[in-house]
# Entry
Amino acid sequence: MAATLGDAFEDCLACSSPGTREERANCITVTGEALVRVDGTFWIHRFPSSGITRQRIAVCCCLMLSHMLPEETPLPVLKLTAQRMVSKLKGLTDAERDKKRQELQKRMADRHGKGAAGRQPIALDEVNKQVKKPQAVALDAQGCLCVSDYATAGVWRAGPDGKCAVVAGGGTSTEDGIKATDARLDSPMGLTVDGARALYIAEQTRVRRASPGPDSKISTVARCDAGSPFRPVSVKADLCGNAYVLCVVFLSKEGNGQLWHLRPDGGTVRTPLAEVTRDAGQGLLADLSFRVLLTYRQGIQAFVKSMTPQGKQAHVIAGGGRLAGIDDVPALDAGLQEAGAMAADRAGNPYLIVGGRSVRKITPGGMIHTVIRAALQDWLVPIAVNPDGTYLYAVNLTSGPCAKVERYSIS
# Structure
């Protein structure tokens, strides 16, 4: 039985299996005066019955604790957690307890107010005036929007006031270790921002990192081998310093793709992706639970698959069903024709472009529903979602004579 359970857990965590179901949930608790988020993932694997043996079930559970910032936590939750913090204090009179509760709530509210920039919509007039050919968008924790521009070979950053400036590229040098704005970027495509506000930029044959701060320096963190047919097309980073790169075979529909895992220690792990060809690999996403999500197509059907950081295939979490365009159904029953790029809010909820004109959200409970419906003439490509999931930014390829960045309110 032990070997059977071991095989089951391997199926749950690293192999594609129709018998595996994943359930996810999270909550917020307190430790002293710290907010702690508890993420739980529960896998159930049902072994098929042969008609002679009974059906067996194996389970695997994983919990992860992470620190929550008051800037990114809803005010009602902060008030409740402050009350819970005070209730755990010993040796206080009622008056002292009430005073302590008010102090904690005020301190949390002040911290929450400092994060208001990330919840404010960004004016895009200046962005679309400066950026001639947007390719990808990304948001950082401070609410700034970054846009890669194919035409000017640079990356622009816009603050909540809408003012934007080049933060990487636009220069003439291809060397590493120089000021980011003095560098020449080679057809910047994919773009992401990690938890330290460092930029990762996917170019034609390499991935570069622009360090955070006004004196940002640029360096190469991964490069295609000489003569390699692969090209980086998408890059995503988590809050822990990991970056993931989706590579496809260039100028060919034959051959598999690759997933590059760029570790914080500087190491790189490259894993083949059997599902990904030049026209089948679309979206990439890394979330707080150290899993990587990939969208891919098989025929007219599209799927979202969960993988480990090493690229081991876990299981499908959405797609493959017959309920195309129907909301509030299990994500595994949904039809996801032409699924594309993905993004996530700070809570880890994935948002997925379907058909180029709608964005659908996958909830922690495994349900799916549409949050944005674009106009018939629109075609959305890379997207970014602000931390609290109220606004989404997308590159719209067919909104007029040229592509531009647009903002949508998430319903």
